Amino acid sequence: MSPHPHAREDRAHPTAGRGALTVSGLDKSFDIGGKPRKILDSIDLDVRPGEFVSIVGASGCGKSTLLRLIAGLDTDYSGELRLDGDRIATTSLDRGVVFQDHRLFPWMTLEQNVELALLNTDTPKSRRAQIVADHIALVNLKGFEKAYPHQLSGGMAQRAAIARALVTEPKLLLLDEPLGALDALTRVHVQNELQRIWMAQRSTMVMVTHDVEEALYLGDRVIIMSPNPGRIRRIVEVDLPHPRDRRSPLLHRLKDEILTELTSGADDANAADNLIHLPNREARS
Prior knowledge:
Blueprint (H helix, E strand, L loop, with lengths): L20 E12 L2 E13 L4 E6 L5 H9 L6 E6 L2 E2 L7 E4 L11 H7 L8 H14 L15 H13 L5 E5 L7 H18 L2 E5 L3 H7 L2 E6 L4 E7 L11 H16 L10 E3 L8
Parallel strand pairs: 3-8, 3-9, 6-7, 7-8, 10-11
Antiparallel strand pairs: 1-2, 1-4, 4-5, 9-10
């Protein structure tokens, strides 16, 4: 599998070259009122190592369910879920998760919350303080090590949650509406920070969001899902380098196309085979 064209060569980084996610023929049903209801239907998706993939779609299309399955939080499914060839059967430190709620422990300081993720790892205690410090610096929270969650803004708390998820150096980081609870200005700021963190860390990232502009700004590809049951309707390739310029006409054009598709109500049985690929007219970084 060839590397992603925008991925920086960084073989010294522990996550470099890892984090290939393969989803094949994935089906998921829930028992509702004694009757099975299919939530996900024949999901096929390959995510390259170091790629940032965004998933959008109407409420109820199974976006978060798909993320839970990849995380190993739900193992009742049919089909194949593999990370670097290994079947996903349970939770693992290979996969970090960030939710909409930061879920920091209120009685612990920032550095204690981040270090907690290393508790069940084989990381030597002598190295933990430095690793925690490095990840706090990665998310631009240096100086707040002794702060408690209530002393952090919403955006800072979410960055702390990202540091905690990354401190174990996972192959894959899963983000479930990580910025959904933030106000508009804070959300833009944390989007910039998340892009910077991803460029520095190079873990594979898969993010569920309702914000199409956010999905395009951060993602190398945007997966559009349709509901009842959840299927991949279309894959949009965002052929622009990182860091991105929000004013790019290509981003605005793609946003309009995706919003039109999401609100049209059209049900094209062959949509999953379609691909929007816009030529890159800007110099690659």
